[in-house]
Write a structure and sequence with these properties.
The protein is an alpha+beta fold and 118 residues long. It has a single domain (4-116), classed as GTP Cyclohydrolase I, domain 2 (2-Layer Sandwich), CATH 3.30.1130. 31% of the residues lie in helices and 30% in strands. The protein is built from three helices and four strands; from the N terminus they run ββαααββ. The protein has helices at 40-45, 54-68, 73-88, and strands at residues 4-14, 27-36, 92-98, 110-116. A four-stranded antiparallel beta sheet has the order 1-2-3-4, covered by helices on one side. Helix 2 (54-68) packs across helix 3 (73-88). It starts with a strand and ends with a strand. The structure holds the ligand Nc1nc2c(c(=O)[nH]1)N=C([C@H](O)[C@@H](O)CO)CN2. The site of the ligand Nc1nc2c(c(=O)[nH]1)N=C([C@H](O)[C@@H](O)CO)CN2 has 9 residues, from helix 3.
């Protein structure tokens, strides 16, 4: 089953980073998520209750990272992946978490993780 639900370019304002100055400001993170989901069920029922609701997931991801205030992107990504699996029943997730502007010479830097079984 290759179906998935996508969230791309989700912007999160939060405290993030390893350096002292980074704990005093907020910065923007950008998350891209691909989450395995059997879309045949909502495809037949036309009922959002059968779908992985990308609006609910987006709100939860933003809230999670704003509360967590991670030092490392790796930690933020790991915790979000666990939330998606435990709270939304997502069996497999690929999650990119980027921090635009962290390295001035780069358009963006970040991490990508995959968790679970597709
Ligand atoms: N692999 C990582 N490397 C670095 C991270 C990170 O989260 N993961 N973070 C920093 C600093 O916070 C940096 O973004 C400040 O510009 C450095 N390297």
């Amino acid at each position: 089953m290759a179906d998935s639900v996508l969230i791309e370019g989700l912007m999160i304002e939060t405290v993030v980073g390893v350096y002292d100055w980074e704990r005093e400001v907020t910065q923007t993170l950008v998350a891209d998520l691909e989450m395995a989901w059997d879309n045949r069920v909502p495809g037949a029922s036309d009922n959002v209750a059968d779908a992985l609701d990308y609006a609910l997931v987006s709100d939860r991801v933003v809230g999670c990272l704003q509360q967590l205030q991670p030092k490392l992107l790796e930690h933020g990504a790991e915790v979000v992946a666990r939330v998606l699996q435990q709270e939304f029943g997502v069996g497999w997730v690929r999650l990119k978490l980027r921090k635009p502007g962290a390295v001035p010479a780069a358009q963006s830097v970040g991490v990508c993780i995959e968790r679970g079984v597709r």
